[in-house]
Specification:
With about 240 residues, the chain is an alpha+beta fold. The protein folds into 2 domains: about 5-80, Nucleic acid-binding proteins (OB fold (Dihydrolipoamide Acetyltransferase, E2P), Beta Barrel), CATH 2.40.50.140; about 85-240, Up-down Bundle (de novo design (two linked rop proteins)). It has helices at about 80-85, 85-105, 110-125, 130-145, 175-180, 190-200, 215-230, and strands at about 5-15, 20-30, 30-40, 55-65, 70-80, 165, 170-175, 185. α2 packs parallel to α4 and α3 (about 110-125) packs antiparallel against α4. The longest helix is centred in the last third of the chain and has 18 residues, at about 215-230. The structure holds zinc ion (ZN).
Length: about 240
């Protein structure tokens, strides 16, 4: 019986096992997050050396053994070399990988998370975006995928669609009438638009907006405080980034 199959995805983590092997986790289109052995990945002439490195995207030939999955072949289509030539970008990318590795689940449909990670790593390497901008969008859309993002489409108190304020307590937008009673912070229209865009835009179009510096700082501050308040996990790699 042939137990071979193909996994399409991005290697999130890689560590040495034994003398010649690697153990990797892959964010895949087909099976969510998958852990697998890459046997012989550290032998000099191995055909699967690339499959043992974090931050590569491609198609992997996999074999299902009794207790574990093994990678027996790979066809890498993206190495993200723009990132790997710049140590600052490598820190950001490491953070993105850690976030995906933490939230992705085995056996679930993680295809949108995979597309988000792939697109965000490409965006990191593009000069039109600052790494801080890419980080902000990546974090926000990750919250959307996790079902933890704020509601920015109606007033959290009365359902009104004319939104002027953000309420940290209510995890979303509120209208000017409700703000008189509940408080909240004034939202610049561009910031509201950005949050709505990051909530619903197709991944391919996610990075198609820019913010002026003042609006960017406003949005960054909301997301940072929101994350600290509602997300209980801290990521090791984030300590190396400017916040
Ligand atoms: Zn209201």
């Amino acid at each position: 019986m042939d137990n071979s199959f193909t996994l399409t995805g991005l290697i999130l983590t890689s560590k040495n096992v034994g003398d010649y092997d690697k153990w990797v986790t892959i964010l895949t289109r087909e099976r969510g997050r998958v852990g697998a052995f890459v046997r012989g990945a550290r032998r000099p002439k191995s055909q699967v050396i690339a499959a043992g490195s974090a931050m590569v995207y491609g198609a992997f030939t996999a074999y299902e053994g009794r207790d574990s999955v093994s990678i027996t072949g790979c066809d890498i289509s993206e190495h993200f070399s723009q990132i790997k030539n710049d140590i600052d970008l490598v820190w950001y990318a490491s953070y993105f990988l850690e976030v995906a590795d933490y939230y992705a689940r085995e056996g679930l449909d993680e295809s949108e998370r995979l597309r988000l990670l792939y697109r965000s790593l490409l965006a990191l390497g593009e000069e039109s975006f600052t790494p801080e901008h890419v980080k902000m969008v990546y974090e926000y859309r990750t919250m959307v995928i996790n079902g933890e993002a704020p509601n920015v489409f109606e007033c959290m108190n009365c359902g009104n669609k004319e939104l002027t304020h953000f309420s940290m307590n209510h995890r979303g937008t509120i209208c000017s009438e409700c703000a008189k009673e509940l408080g909240g912070e004034v939202l610049t229209p561009a910031v509201l638009f950005a949050m709505q865009h990051m909530s619903t835009a197709a991944i391919e179009k996610l990075y198609s907006f820019v913010l002026k510096e003042g609006a960017f700082e406003e949005l960054k501050s909301i997301i940072l405080r929101y994350r600290h308040r509602y997300m209980d996990h801290t990521f090791n790699s984030e300590r190396f980034l400017d916040n």
